[in-house]
Write a structure and sequence with these properties.
With 356 residues, this protein is of the alpha/beta class. The protein has 2 domains: 2-131 and 319-336, ATPase, nucleotide binding domain (Nucleotidyltransferase, domain 5, 2-Layer Sandwich), CATH 3.30.420.40; 141-314, Nucleotidyltransferase, domain 5. The protein contains 11 helices and 10 strands. It has helices spanning 46-69, 74-80, 93-110, 119-125, 141-144, 179-189, 196-204, 229-240, 249-277, 293-306, 325-336, and strands at residues 2-7, 12-21, 24-34, 83-89, 113-118, 147-152, 157-162, 168-173, 282-286, 311-313. A 5-stranded mixed sheet has the order 3-2-1-4-5, with helices on both faces. Strands 8-7-6-9-10 form a 5-stranded mixed sheet, with helices on both faces. A hairpin with a 4-residue loop joins strand 6 and strand 7. Helix 1 runs parallel beside helix 3, helix 4 crosses helix 11 and helix 6 packs antiparallel against helix 9. The radius of gyration is 20 Å and the shape is globular. 50% of the residues are buried. It binds 5'-O-[(R)-(carboxyoxy)(hydroxy)phosphoryl]adenosine and zinc ion (ZN). Zinc ion binds at residues 119, 123, 153, 287-288, 322.
């Protein structure tokens, strides 16, 4: 199966070509363009994001044609593709529409099947891409499932129980801010810019995670829900008395390390508790915040201590943040299980909740 996938749910415009034969990846080509323009607004501006996607997408598809067929020939690329795929939700509705409508148009023009992909399923599927721990063809499904997925991104924080590659049950999500938002908003309060996650985690490297005791909301609650808005408020009050220290590198590093510890400890405690409760065979970490080194390492080590036989999967760094390779892999799983979408009626669904 040869898939051309498009991702445009937030502020990354991306396309990928994935060729799979006999359950093995033969070829993967992918391109991602991040929209730098939002950093000057301190967050993603939906209207601007959609316009940027529309302006960028033809160039990305042109470049993809160059890498797949050796020249910028959309017609030739079309002849090589069996399935068009695009993220249809969750995400920013106008941004989603740009990518999905591009795929719909190509699907009609090239007379090829269309598969709409859930963005969260895409993040999870990144763990099956080449070089990832569950690389397609390397582990049998019976060794992987049931699995627990912890999805942590800028818009989502969720625990999902997976009984197969396409069956998800939502155990719990965040009641307010996502883990990525907690990183971004606290980083903004410290003047570290946007997106704040990578900047805050870089600062945290030289800081003391025990320097300050920030709240770990719902950490000791046995349910599977999260809540991170209280952490942002706590950091705001904490900093309001200490504005003059924001120029002190040691102070910034200690606050960053302490905030990061509060977020990661909460995520790890709840994920491992759910993994033990459901006696899963695998724990899968996914989403942009999965790029966070402390989270990657501490989830692995705590899981080893509490559920030693469980497999632990976390995607290579390049596949943690938004990309289209992960969407192509999720489309492959859906297509193999029989999913096809109606090109005339499929629409973006900004609130599509996986596993509900
Ligand atoms: O999955 P993603 O690219 O987009 C969404 O689907 O939301 O995730 C972006 C989020 C942002 O909140 C960003 O700050 C966070 O992932 N992030 C990180 C790191 N790298 C990206 N958070 C903490 N540490 C990192 N190293
Ligand atoms: Zn994402």
């Amino acid at each position: 199966m040869r898939i051309l996938a498009i991702e445009s749910s937030c502020d990354e415009s991306a396309a990928a070509y994935l060729e799979i034969k006999d359950g093995r990846v033969l070829r993967l080509e992918q391109l991602v363009a991040s929209q730098a323009i939002h950093s000057k607004f301190g967050g993603v501006v939906p209207e601007i994001a959609a316009r940027e996607h529309a302006a960028t997408m033809p160039h990305i598809l042109d470049e993809l044609a160059k890498s797949v067929v050796g020249k910028p020939d959309g017609g030739e690329l079309g002849r090589q593709v069996d399935v068009l795929a695009a993220t249809s939700g969750p995400g920013l509705v106008t941004s989603l529409k740009v990518g999905l409508d591009s795929a719909r148009t190509l699907s009609v023009a090239w007379s090829k099947d269309l598969v709409a992909v859930n963005h969260i399923a895409g993040h999870i599927a990144a763990n099956w891409l080449p070089g990832a721990p569950l690389e397609l063809g390397s582990v049998s499904d019976s060794e992987v499932f049931p699995a627990l997925a912890l999805v942590v991104s800028g818009g989502h924080t969720e625990l999902l129980l997976m009984s197969s590659l396409t069956e998800f049950r939502l155990l719990g999500a965040t009641r307010d801010d996502a883990a990525g938002e907690a990183f971004d908003k606290t980083a903004k309060l410290m003047g570290l810019g946007y997106p704040g996650g990578p900047a805050l985690s870089k600062r945290a490297e030289s800081g003391d995670p025990a320097a300050y005791d920030f709240p770990r909301p719902l950490m000791n609650d046995t349910g599977d829900e999260f809540s991170f808005s209280g952490l942002k408020t706590a950091v705001r009050y904490f900093l309001s008395d200490r504005r003059e220290q924001l120029t002190d590198e040691k102070f910034l590093a200690d606050v960053s390390a302490s905030v990061q510890r509060a977020i990661t400890e909460t995520l790890v405690t709840k994920a491992v508790r759910a993994a033990v409760r459901h006696q899963v065979k695998t724990v899968v970490l996914a989403g942009g915040v999965a790029a966070n080194r402390e989270l990657r390492e501490s989830l692995g080590s705590r899981l080893k201590a509490k559920l030693p036989d469980a497999r632990y999967a976390v995607p290579p760094l390049t596949y943690c943040t938004d990309n289209a390779a992960m969407i192509a892999m999720a489309a492959y799983f859906s297509a193999v299980s029989g999913r096809r979408d109606d090109v005339t009626s499929i629409d973006a669904d900004s609130g599509w909740e996986l596993g509900r």
